[in-house]
Amino acid sequence: MTASSPGVSAEPYDAVDVIRAKRDRRELADPQIDWVVDAYTRGAVADEQMSALAMAILLNGMTQRETARWTTAMIASGERLDFSSLRTPGGGRRPTADKHSTGGVGDKITLPLAPLVAAFGVAVPQLSGRGLGHTGGTLDKLESIPGWRAQLGNDEMMSQLERVGAVICAAGAGLAPADRKLYALRDVTGTVEAIPLIASSIMSKKIAEGTGALVLDVKVGSGAFMKDEARARELAETMVALGQDAGVSTVALLTDMETPLGLTAGNAIEVEESLEVLAGGGPEDVVELTVRLAEEMLAAAGVHSADPARALQDGRAMDVWRKMVAAQGGDPDAPLPRAKESETLYAPADGVLVGLDALSVGVAAWRLGAGRARKEDAVQAGAGVRLHAKPGASVRAGEPLMTLLTDTPERFSRAKEALEGAVTIAPAGSRPARRLILDRIA
Length: 442
Ligand code: URA
Hints:
- The structure is a single chain.
- The protein has a 4-stranded mixed sheet, sandwiched between helices.
- The chain starts with 14 loop residues before the first helix and ends with a strand.
- Strand 4, helix 10 and strand 5 form a beta-alpha-beta unit.
- The chain is about 40% helix and about 15% strand.
- It has 3 domains: about 45 residues, Transferase, Pyrimidine Nucleoside Phosphorylase, Chain A, domain 3 (Up-down Bundle), CATH 1.20.970; about 230 residues, Pyrimidine Nucleoside Phosphorylase, Chain A, domain 2; about 90 residues, Pyrimidine nucleoside phosphorylase-like, C-terminal domain (Aldehyde Oxidoreductase, domain 3, Alpha-Beta Complex).
- By secondary structure, it is α/β, with parallel strands linked by helices.
- It has 16 helices and 13 strands.
């Protein structure tokens, strides 16, 4: 029996009353929110009741107060990490900073960014996820490095932060368990897109993780969760307010995801591109966003006179990367896996490449084996899409535009289907209208 049986349950509230309140556009009181999140986590509110409530929230929204309380209740469902014992070489308290991206195609920025920020003495505890659907996952990319391990205990994480300054690992099961359960339910009930639920889901994990500063990279465009700028802005504003209320110095950038970041979408090929950036090269857009996010993280952590672009050029970020990979069992010098098969697609006409659709490239990379359809699926380390041109480039008919990579060539045809209509070539002299960083919200 659940809490919906008056007279029988020892629960202080009735789930049906809470659902009706939201259905009828009333605000939920703090104790109602605390109860429903806790009762759902321990199984006293049933999945079908939480599904109805999530749908009412999606349709009728929540106020900022309700969203903040919901976030607090999700944090309270699990453990909170505490990095306050981390020290600088001078004995002062060592600042911590983290970045969260809402996910996109070719978004490998965490890989060069975490060691880059750590090179300035700020500790970076970066809890990351795996890919689902067309957006890649940071852990899947790093697991293409032979020996690298994603699962660390809290003590190991702390010791790595002390010794190396940066860690990228999987979030432990103890962090916001209410979110894990609710997210799985939202995934199968068409309620993922509710802004209060997305914001509280992301921020409960980030606040519980214990970072002092947080920079949010909220993606906008075809390859992003949020397709239009107004909704992305609303999500960013909601999350920044939640972070600030919780005492985390939080800023958000709205960034373009109409076209993939960099020239690679996959796993090992994205690590390869990140290494180019750490060696002082790499595609312009990846470098621009890495440097800008590093500046924001450092400023939010109280470090104002840093020059991250220089730390990519002079090898300081690469030194931290090598230590970070080795500390998690990875061999920074081992050759990365390569796909067994490849197929190249060519430009159909002369002109300027003005469009290269992020979602199509993401779906193609996923179908080639770089991503998974179900949480349990394995990914192919070498699979993905390597681009030979980016929007703005002049192309000639017959020139290579992109190469598809996989170990299983039967996947090529479905990947090519995903790419139909993905490329727009305009007459010479045209220019794509594109800015990478659309806005900053603080
Ligand atoms: N990522 C999360 O962690 N939660 C959401 O709800 C959506 C994206």
